[in-house]
Records
---
Amino acid sequence: MRLNTLFLKKLFVLSLIFAFIAGVNASAFANSEHNETVLKDSAHVTEAHAEGEGHAAGHGEEPFEPTKVIMEHISDSHDWHLWGHTSIGLPVILYTEAGLVTFNSSEFHHDQEGTHVVEKDGQKFVRFENKIYYAAETANEKGQYLTLADEHPTNAKPLDFSITKNVASMFLSAIILCLVFFSVAAAYKKREGKAPRGLQSFIEPIIVFVRDEVARPNIGHKYVRYMPFLLTVFFFILINNLIGLIPIFPGGANLTGNIAVTFVLGTITFLVTNFSGNKYYWKHVLAPDVPWWLYPIMLVVEVIGLLSKPFALIIRLFANITAGHIIVLSLISLIFIFKTLYIAPVSVAFVLFMDVLELLVAFLQAFIFTMLTALFIGTAVEEHHH
Amino acid sequence: MDLVTPSIGLVFWTTVTFFFLFILLRVFAWKPIVSALNERERSIEDALNAADKAKEELTRLNQESDKLLKDARLERDKILKEAKTLGDNLIAEAKHNAQTEGAKMIAKAHDEINAQKNAALAEVKNQVASLSIDIAEKILRKKFENAGEQQTLVAELLKDVKLN
């Protein structure tokens, strides 16, 4: 409790400093010539950092666009950016009209404007804002091989099955999960009937927690069948949430904050739930206990109910993780928005706070997703004794 | 809008990865881990149950031994009591016997003494009789010698003789 109040006090002081510096900056931009030069110097320093942090925004005198940088960081990418202008090229796999085409993403030479054409198997591709299009025959006045309408390309797109940053990060998480749990399983075989040790004793309470607090109370005695699924979902979300929090390679991919991933997870939950549904469940959905003339409305309501459950799961996980990433990136962006290093301690303090919070959220979201999945399965397999 | 539009590639790879991850983990991790956990929990429960049973058994045995001890004590007391009564009875009987025997012997002795006394008295009577006859004979003889003398003699003799 004492620690808490101390922490709050510190936060308060930090926010005061923050407000003060913000005020100084505003006045500096407005009036003082002297201050301007000083700030320009510090801005120069931070600009260099900006290049590192937001490589797209870092081209010399280009103004810093926090929205663009943040969106770039939370969305998927064909390259895995390391620092500055260094990034790892990842395999691009395109399903085109003429079959599969593969090449390394480094062949785009970091181009995101559609100006660099990659020619493979007689087909030409350009990349515009993380999306790959068939290149136009001729370049427009900006040198882009695209036809733009309202800043959006109208070119046709091949189906993109590339191993993107998110996919690579997911493979990594799958490998980590396999290594961790195979070794834990081996430990259980080797030390049969004995007390857990090392990694085993770290993992065991979580597994027991999923079994005793998530699966058993929500599903009932049929929980054993669903344990592998629930455990896989829980640890898959957890490990990817955690990897997403690591700012440096090989972390930082916003995987569980990507709608495609949460969509797949939600869909799997939907399929598992409805394929487990017993006659009571389907009777409740298709022939609820209401007067017959209400059926047209009730059927629609019930079907919406079926779909809204996994939809809520999809949006909840996506929004929570993405929001966390956006807040952290926004706080870091403050340094570049105010173009001063003095804001850095404040940013770092807030980011630290957010990261600790995100650590909690990582566990919480994995838990909630698994919990609700178990709950939905529970309602689908529940036996009614009238 | 890009943010909330699932891209086909990621959907595909997530599905594939999740499917394989699920299969691999289910076969090589969850099955052995969950079964080992259940197994251990069962063995712990069994051990606890066995401990409870052993405890119960111990209490039962303790109670039994207590009961046995109590019974043995009671038995001992009973035996001691019986022995005491028996001893007392024996002593009492012996005393009684001795008393009756003694009384009998005394009575017998009395009878004997009486018989002896009677016999002795009879003897004395006989002796007195024979003595009397002797005296009478001597008197008679003397009388026949001297009448006066005889009379004095008889008187003297009678004076001397004392009957017991």
Note: The longest strand of chain A covers residues 91-96.
---
Amino acid sequence: MIEVQNIHKSFGANKVLQGISGKFKPGVTNLIIGGSGSGKTTLLKCMIGLHKPEEGNVLYDGREFTNMSFEERIEIRKEIGMLFQGSALFDSMTVEENIMFPLNMFTDQPRAEKLERVNFCLERVNLEGKNKLFPAELSGGMKKRVGIARAIAMNPKYLFVDEPNSGLDPKTSIVIDELIKELTEEYNTTTIVVTHDMNSVMGIGDYILFLHQGKKFWEGSNKEIAHTDIEELNDFVFASRFMKAAKKNF
Amino acid sequence: MNFTNFGKYILLLKAVFRRPEKFSIYMKAIFQQMNFIGVGSLGLISIISTFIGAVMTLQIAFQLVSDFIPRTIIGSVTRDSSILELSPTISAIVLAGKIGSAISSEIGTMRVTEQIDALEIMGINSPGYLILPKILAGITMVPVLVIFAMMLSIIGGFFGGTLSGAISAADYIQGITTDFNPYTIVVALVKAFVFGFIITSVPAYEGFYVQGGALEVAQASTRAVVVSCISILACDYIVTQLLL
């Protein structure tokens, strides 16, 4: 489980996060949602240590992460997998080398074993046989799937996903969402997805944390979100005419 | 660089020299960088050094027109200028343009496309993994390139001088072999070592802290070359003052 306690983060005079707290359980898909500039990516970066919050703690199964030294953090980071918004694949490496990279760095397995793991991960994301392609030769959806394969290569306990559906068509978005949900349930990972895609919210949001203007505004499940009366949340989730009409049927 | 940037540069270097996660991976990266910096720049350095040697011989011959000065002096001056100043400094400035901009844009692009964040999330010391192999390759290969540059500059001087008739082959050879002080080679190699460090570490610093997109990467690349060139000239003066 990952717990965030009273996280505050500012950039100059701009207070981006103001006392965010929440608990993200394993085996369920946790979503952080909110409008542009609401602080969701900043919260994610505070959780993984790319930003240092001015106040507050992040706990990984009770281990206090925020004030750890670089060396102490390495142990927790080996348990983290992350899919970035732009996939962040290493351009100079093939798909196979990208996925094998963390295995090369942190394990002493023989090459055959590592290759077996790479092929398993590729198979898991339905990209068998794409080992030798370079990131520039992949479509957006394929890049995301390779990003997921790389993220799960080390069998992570914690999986972070930043805007998995950005730039993808609706069908591919659903494939990615379902893949994230399946992996979360299969490996009992603590998965945190930052998104503002309403299909994801309604489809895979077991636990949802809604941020508005840097504050936690609401938390609950996708079943509860349909019946909320909170105006800011309704304005965000049911912004389109289609979603407004759909809400009546929930 | 102002003091804040200098402080950040020192802190980055501290992170660069942390213990590597896995030596075998770093060794592979070091050899790749040695190939890129050394073998990849050999052609350019050869052309530039040969022509600089040739032109320098012609200019020295033009300036030393006196019956009281033996013609062999042209060879001696060409040799010492090539070894002490022109080969290390001109090579370093050319390499700062070629290698420095490549390093800065490579690391800068990795920064803006979140590849560096990806390394950090995996628990990898990104400054060490990305910058250490480049610095080690720089401080080993730039001296090698400078040795080539010295030789080719002196050879270029021979052909430039003899083909133009500015000096006879015998005078030139006598000039370059008379009163040779091997300590000048040591000074040149110390300079090359320092320049190799600057050429790789300054652009790496500029690239590593890029924020924004393509425009900022390009600006960082330009800044990397400018700061590297100024640093090379400043260090050239300091090393010369200290060692001669």
Note: Strands of chain A lie at 2-11, 14-24, 29-34, 55-60, 63-64, 80-83, 158-162, 190-195, 207-212, 215-220.
